[in-house]
Amino acid sequence: MQVPLLIAYASAASVFIPLIWITYTWQYRDQKIRYLFYLLIASLLSDLIGLILFKLSLNTYIIVNFFLLIQFMICYQLLTEEKNQSASVRIIPIGFLLIFVVNYFFIQSPGVFNSYSNSIACLILMFFSVRYFYTLLRDLPEVHIMRIPLFWIAVGVLTYYSGNLLLFIVNNYLTIGNNGSHPVMWILHNILNFSKNILFTIAIWQNYRKRK
Question: Among 26, 38, 123, 206, whose CB has the most other CB atoms within 10 angstroms?
């Protein structure tokens, strides 16, 4: 088996690690862990459908683009507090959804990787991750911040999106005249996705320790 394909399968399979943990500790979940569960299920379904389309030699970008939209919406909910949100913060997901729809149907089209909207998603979620770290350091809700589940979720989101920002921007330029993506892009993406799932697993474990 080729190395890129092996890494892709390992990345897809890594979602089972946090899923198994979250199922085992389901009775100790809170609202953030519930959102994380939805994200993991969406990731699993996206990989399965994408694999089926790939085996049928069909375009997988419809699934890829919509999954990244769903992932953005859930990560936004994970990184923002539902209480005391300003109007500018509440309008961000609506604005991003409009950008995604316009880009998807009128600019880059469903058949290609939507690098514009996904690059914007990277910047927004990187901002909210750093914003959460600033709030954490300012308020110091716990002496050992590494015991806070949301800390690890924010680290996972920041790792994934900061690492993928450049890849999302340059992918379509690397593949001009070709069908599909540059293989190096998805090798790095899959490594980052694997890392993200491991960090999410740590978040679930910390939630279990804290609530138990």
Answer: 206
- In angstroms, the CA 212 to CA 205 distance is 10
> Rounded to whole angstroms, how far apart are CA atoms 116 and 120?
6
How confident is the model over 106-153, as pLDDT tens digits? 999 888 889 999 999 999 999 999 999 999 989 888 878 899 999 999
pTM equals 0.90
CA dihedral 53, 187, 22, 49 (to 10 degrees): 0
Residue the block writes with tokens 């950008």: 99
Residue 186 CA to residue 198 CA, distance in Å, equals 18
Contact of 25 with 207, CB cutoff 8 Å: yes
